[in-house]
Amino acid sequence: MKTYEIVTILKPQLTDGEVAAFVEKAKAFISSSGGEVVSEEKLGRRRFSHDIAKNREGFYLYLKFKGQGDFVKKWNDSMRLNQNVLRTMVMNAVEHKIKPAKVKAPVAA
Question: Would you place residue 56 in the very low, low, confident or very high pLDDT band (cuts 50, 70, 90)?
């Protein structure tokens, strides 16, 4: 299974309870598709640099999960039909592996 990251922007008119309900539905959708939620973050309301669907701000949500590749199409189709979603984006999560620094052997004099 691959690791994915989702950033979703919700309408700013939603209450905190409605946002929490959306998060729970999103996590249930991921789980029902055979995925596993690794982490979630509610990044809060932020202003846009330009209008999106006549909105000047939106509520940002970040989810990181493990799942199958066919899930991305299901997610995009589902979010396209949701009235409360302004934008959504799914990305492959890149795990950076840090290599240990090479230590040069001292030169004998």
Answer: very high
Which helix or strand (DSSP H or E) is residue 78 part of? helix 71-81
Q: Is the pLDDT of residue 33 over 90?
A: no
Please list, in sequence order, all residues whose beta carbon lies within 8 angstroms of the beta carbon of residue 34, skipping any fewer than 6 positions away: 67, 68, 71
Tracing tokens 């030169």 back to the chain, one arrives at 107
- Give the C-alpha separation, 4 to 90, whole Å: 7
Phi, psi (degrees; rounded to nearest 5) at 12: -75, -15
44 torsion bin: left (phi>0), alpha (psi -120 to 50), beta (else) = left
Give the single-character DSSP code of 105: P
Q: Among 25, 20, 5, which Cα is nearest to 59's?
A: 20
Q: How does strand 2-10 pair with strand 85-92?
A: antiparallel
Residue with the bigger pLDDT between 91 and 107: it is: 91
The HSE-up count of residue 16 (CA atoms within 13 Å, CB side) is 3
Identify whether the C-beta of residue 61 lies closer than 8 Å to the C-beta of residue 78: no
